[in-house]
């Protein structure tokens, strides 16, 4: 069959066009008063890439009755609230298999980073965006989209796309109700995972992968083992500076340590429940998380490179 007459291809193209030109108007009807208070505060993950945020959001969305953008919602990135109203992708879903590849999950029901939804409101490059660089009209559309999705779910929504770490100023200004989950991981383990991903994706350790803090061009001149450690540090420096600059109080952030989360998911879920309660969120417990997860300890990159990274992280 001619590919242009294939009904599947036709449907995909039609949906793509609708996402870019039509569905944004549908959102306006789903959030008639986006300037009013949100029904529930949105919750944004922050942190460096490969810090364990995907596993964390899989566990959180299994254990707690929160909303989230799934792969099905992302297919309708022009109006994910419409996908929620039509399909309810997270309703009666199976328990997560706790697998992902570079933050990408399988299954319509699984949590999605959904970059296309984010790029409706924030530029692609450079990824770090100051408040004076955002488009006010797009920021109002951002609030409208979050409001419509919140109305559709009628519960707090967790957004897991770590590029939010580079967009804090706009998020905090236009969604002042926001809460933040900041992920932390041992620097050496985090850097190890970043180097492993570079090798897997590009076939080398030198090519930069994922989030670019403002100083990235200077950091690219460093050797790879220093690059990844500084990538992590600079991202966290941006997070701390921009949260403080936006006036986000300590009570509105939850610091999640990957190692602690793996050793006792139930304890962290309990602490997260208290965090939500203190911030006026009513979140129902759906199920108990797995007892524990075993982080990988085997060195999976060049041994000399690993040793150099370990030495740099411990002395710097």
TrEMBL record:
Organism encoding this protein: Thioflavicoccus mobilis 8321
Organism superkingdom: Bacteria
This protein's name: Sulfotransferase family protein
InterPro entries per the UniProt record, alphabetical: P-loop_NTPase
Classification of source organism: Bacteria, Pseudomonadati, Pseudomonadota, Gammaproteobacteria, Chromatiales
Gene3D superfamilies associated with the record: P-loop containing nucleotide triphosphate hydrolases
SUPFAM superfamilies: P-loop containing nucleoside triphosphate hydrolases
């Amino acid at each position: 069959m001619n590919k242009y007459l294939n009904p599947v291809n036709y449907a995909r193209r039609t949906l793509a066009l609708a996402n870019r030109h039509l569905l944004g108007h549908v959102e306006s009807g789903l959030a008639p008063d986006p300037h009013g208070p949100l029904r529930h505060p949105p919750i944004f993950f922050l942190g460096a890439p490969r810090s364990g945020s995907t596993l964390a959001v899989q566990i959180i969305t299994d254990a707690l009755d929160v909303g989230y953008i799934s792969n099905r919602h992302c297919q309708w990135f022009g109006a994910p609230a419409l996908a929620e109203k039509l399909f309810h992708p997270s309703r009666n879903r199976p328990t997560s298999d706790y697998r992902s590849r570079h933050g990408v999950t399988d299954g319509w029901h699984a949590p999605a980073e959904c970059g296309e939804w984010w790029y409706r409101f924030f530029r692609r490059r450079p990824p770090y965006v100051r408040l004076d660089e955002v488009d006010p009209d797009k920021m109002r559309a951002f609030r409208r989209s979050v409001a419509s999705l919140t109305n559709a779910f009628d519960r707090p929504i967790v957004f897991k796309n770590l590029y939010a770490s580079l967009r804090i100023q706009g998020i905090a200004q236009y969604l002042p109700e926001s809460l933040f989950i900041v992920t932390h991981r041992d620097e050496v383990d985090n850097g190890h995972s970043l180097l492993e991903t570079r090798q897997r994706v590009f076939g080398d350790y030198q090519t930069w992968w994922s989030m670019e803090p403002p100083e990235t061009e200077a950091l690219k001149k460093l050797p790879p083992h220093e690059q990844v450690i500084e990538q992590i540090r600079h991202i966290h420096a941006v997070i701390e500076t921009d949260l403080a600059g936006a006036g986000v109080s300590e009570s509105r952030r939850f610091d999640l340590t990957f190692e602690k989360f793996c050793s006792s998911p139930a304890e962290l879920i309990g602490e997260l429940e208290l965090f939500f309660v203190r911030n006026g969120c009513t979140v129902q417990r759906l199920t108990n998380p797995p007892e524990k997860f075993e982080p990988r300890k085997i060195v999976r990159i060049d041994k000399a490179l690993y040793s150099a990274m370990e030495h740099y992280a411990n002395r710097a």
